[in-house]
UniProtKB/TrEMBL annotation:
Pfam families: ETF (PF01012). The lineage of its organism: unclassified sequences, metagenomes, ecological metagenomes. This is Electron transfer flavoprotein alpha/beta-subunit N-terminal domain-containing protein. Belongs to the ETF beta-subunit/FixA family. GO terms for molecular function: electron transfer activity. InterPro entries: ET-Flavoprotein_bsu_CS (IPR000049), ETF_a/b_N (IPR014730), ETF_b (IPR012255), ETF_beta_N (IPR033948), Rossmann-like_a/b/a_fold (IPR014729). PANTHER family: ELECTRON TRANSFER FLAVOPROTEIN BETA-SUBUNIT (PTHR21294). CDD domains: ETF_beta. Residues 1-161 form the Electron transfer flavoprotein alpha/beta-subunit N-terminal domain.
Length: 209
């Protein structure tokens, strides 16, 4: 396919380690978006900040994760595509690109798989396990340690205070709690036939069959 790869993330200085690992594995440039006003952003505002930075770049294909490991909202990828006014596909497990189009496979509910043609430029949210990441070579790590990571804040992107952070977010977390466990699983030991007889007896005893 050719071209270049640009890594972009919104996060604190600690995110530089991840960006440098990506550079060591072959990415060309990296951008980190960081600003005190970027805290407490919901998924939509996060997408808005990313879109503001990406609009300044030339791009054909934008790859994101399916969801964040902390909240799992799955909002950023689709919202990013909407803000850039380009197509998107979610939960992608395979990508083949040729002649300005991508043939992609993506997961649906119930274990189904959907195959789509999608016109580029586009946003794809990538499912875990789509490929095996290459190893970073010693030389790649050394070169990555010397590369500059571009840092951009709200002023660089022309963002207003009431558009970002908690002020710009439409949703926020009020409370996180662990669900109350009301039922316990019961394991039935023994050979399959014996376990089946025990299960049948339990169901009859509880009036379920």
């Amino acid at each position: 396919m050719g071209g270049t790869v640009t890594l972009i993330t919104m996060g604190p200085k600690e995110a530089d380690d991840t960006l440098r690992m990506g550079l060591a594995k072959g990415a060309d440039t990296a951008i980190r978006l960081d600003d005190p006003q970027f805290t407490e952003c919901d998924g939509i505002v996060t997408a808005y900040i990313l879109a503001s930075a990406i609009k300044e770049l030339n791009y054909d294909l934008i790859l994101t994760g399916c969801f964040a490991s902390d909240d799992g909202y799955s909002q950023v990828g689709p919202a990013l595509a909407e803000m850039l006014d380009i197509p998107h596909a979610a939960m992608v497990t395979k990508v083949e690109t040729e002649d300005g189009k991508s043939l992609i496979s993506r997961e649906l509910e119930g274990g189904l798989l959907e195959v789509l043609d999608i016109q580029l430029p586009a946003v794809l949210t990538i499912q875990t396990g789509i490929n095996e990441p290459r190893y970073a070579s010693i030389m790649g790590i050394a070169k990555a340690s010397k590369k500059e990571i571009a840092l951009k804040g709200s002023g660089d992107l022309g963002l207003k205070e009431d558009e970002i952070g908690k002020k710009g977010s439409k949703t926020y977390i009020e409370e996180l709690t662990i669900p109350i466990q009301e039922k316990m699983a019961e394991l039935i030991p023994g050979a399959p036939e014996e376990a089946a007889d025990k299960l049948s007896a339990i169901l009859k005893e509880r009036g379920l069959v």
